[in-house]
Automatic annotation (TrEMBL):
Subcellular location per the Swiss-Prot or TrEMBL entry: Membrane
Main subcellular location of this protein, as a coarse class: membrane
Coiled coil spans: none
Topology relative to the membrane: Multi-pass membrane protein
Domain Rhodopsin stretches: 73-314
Name of the featured protein: Rhodopsin domain-containing protein
Family per similarity comment: Belongs to the SAT4 family.
Membrane-spanning residues: 54-73, 93-112, 132-158, 170-189, 224-245, 257-279
Pfam families named among the record's database cross-references: Fung_rhodopsin
InterPro entries, per database record: Rhodopsin_dom_fungi, SAT4-like
Amino acid sequence: MSAFYGQPPNTTRDADIIRGTFWVDFRIDTFNASDGIPIAPAPPPGYVHEDRQAAIIGGMVVVLVAIVAPTVARVVARCRSADMRLGMDDWTIMLAATLAAVYPCVQMWMVVQGGGGRHSWENTYEQWEKFVFGLSLCRLLFFVTVGLIKISITLFVRRLADRVSRFWRWAADIFLVTLVLYVLGALFWNSLFCMPPRAWFSRQYAGSLESPPRCSDDMTNARVFSIIHIVQSFLLLGAPIVIVWNVKINTNKKRRLFAIWIAGAVTVLGGVLQQIAFVITNDLFWQYTSILRWTTLDLAMGTLTASLPVLDAYIMGSWHTATSVLGGTSSERRAARLQLGSEPTNVRMDTLASRNRVKSDSDSTQNIFVGGQRVSDEEFPLGDHKTVRVEERRDEEADRGR
């Protein structure tokens, strides 16, 4: 039977886990594994059992729903709408959401099998082995996933930049390259953190080696990727605001897009607070939740922010289609009367219906851009980069009716 964490080992595996912990986590190779881990916390006098396990599992279920629900809704919107098609940003966010969904699942496994949410003195070395494996895997998942989420958002912003200027298009391309490098760096650095790589994921394996494995500095690794993540998030949050501000679109839609980027600001806040909450403790089983709350917020809000523009376009497009079938909103009917004069009602209805039959080839930019004035199909042809925006025409006519 495995000994409790901090106590002298009961088995050979316990001794290997202790040795691997000192070699990898504490970077110390002058010690006696038979003494256990001297710096491990001890229960205070009169200690009464407490744990956070139920709260952690409940929170991870909420996070899982927050990640999966908007992504599934986005894919359903793409498949159901004749005016939308799947683009690279959709495939990227689906991959990111899949990895993000694995994160809370691993966290729940760490609670059940690794003793997460309990104090260290209540867990064994075998539980520590599983707990550390979960932590190492979650770090790899987190940095790769947030990079993929930002790539998906950048692909959407890249199409917005096509409507503004060449400078913003080039800026988006350069930023996209930095994100790809970030994802590759996070993947390889966190996979090859130690040599041999398995030593980073298994303290028992590390301790069974004849000599200490060569590992990078743990704190430096986390700091570097976290700071880069925050800086990239700030840039990604600010660029769309500037771009949308300079593009002539309907005021209400502009407000909705700004609200979406405000939701993205919560993601940035999560990254900043993650840095502030960075703690060093000898009771990691208990204290790791101070970081967990911010990493899960980052993943959930990032996934939601990436899907909101598509959901907004689908919802508003469905709303305008429904109102057009019923004869349009009151403002649209007034605008139609002003523009068409005494033209029969059935002709006006045919005009509205024909507008709704226009098909779009765009990705996430559906129902967003038309410019500041009415344009003909010849001036603004359908295609991957130029798309007739039915909703904006109706909004302009409604504004004239007012």
